[in-house]
Amino acid sequence: MKLPLALIHGWGQHGGVWRELLAALDSPAALNLELPGHGVAAAADFALDRLADAYAAQAPAACAVLGWSLGGMLALRWAQRHPQQVQKLVLFATTPCFGERTDWPHGSPHAVQQAFAALVKAAPEPALQRFADLLAVGEADLRGVRRSLRALLEGQPVPSTDMLLAGLHFLAETDLRPALLAEPPGQPVLIIHGEGDTITPLGAAWWLAEHLPHARLHAVAMCGHAPMVSHVAETAALVKAFLDE
């Protein structure tokens, strides 16, 4: 693994989600980037291009970028805007379009998004715990993965309500499909997706695999939305082999 790594986590969590994967990859010096207002990151606008450029400015001139869920969406845009910098791309549980659309059967319904946003606004900490439980749906060891994801939440302060809602708004409004079809990233891409993922269904990963010219998809059996947490050994082996090519 010669390329340095840059990693972007998903909504509601923090950079600690990569801890076990990085240990398995023996990459303690990786650049662990965080979403605005999450983990130790300062609050900032959830603006797609601004965030992609800000991450690029912090990263080495050539690197491999690993993104999970919302972080994977940002990683895709980063790869488009800075193709010489992003040499390889690894996407975990990533969709090009999180929200429901008339031409997109893999999106979250508006009513579900609105109800969850209301829960976040009323009680952010219980909402994050509820979301952690949803991430584990589809896992063989449902209770164990839920415990792991809830424990990760306890490792960092709860993001502000404003930042959580801004992230949800980003997910609801962002549709990367037109840009990806017009200018698909040319880098090698490894897509790792849980077969049982109910947050971003497997069909979204298949769309990416079909429309990114140098992409391959590995579907993880009995796995939910956080394969790098629940299937560390399997995902680490896949990532290592991909980066070593």
What are the SSEs and their pairings?
Elements: E1 5-8, H1 19-25, E2 31-33, H2 48-58, E3 63-68, H3 70-81, E4 86-92, H4 110-122, H5 124-135, H6 142-154, H7 161-173, H8 177-182, E5 189-194, H9 202-211, E6 215-220, H10 227-230, H11 232-244
Parallel strand pairs: 1-2, 1-3, 3-4, 4-5, 5-6
- Side by side, the strands of the main sheet go 2-1-3-4-5-6
Total count of helical runs of at least 4 residues: 11
CATH architecture: 3-Layer(aba) Sandwich
- The radius of gyration is 16 Å
Which class do the helix and strand fractions yield? alpha/beta
Explain what this protein looks like in three dimensions.
This protein has 11 helices and 6 strands. With 245 residues, it is α/β, with parallel strands linked by helices. It has one domain (5-244): Alpha/Beta hydrolase fold, catalytic domain (Rossmann fold), CATH 3.40.50.1820. α9 links the parallel β5 and β6 (215-220). The longest helix is centred in the middle third of the chain and has 13 residues, at 110-122. It is globular. The termini are close together.
Short descriptors:
245 residues, alpha/beta, Rossmann fold, six-stranded parallel beta sheet, 11 helices
Question: What's this model, at a glance?
Answer:
It contains eleven helices and six strands. By secondary structure, it is an alpha/beta fold.
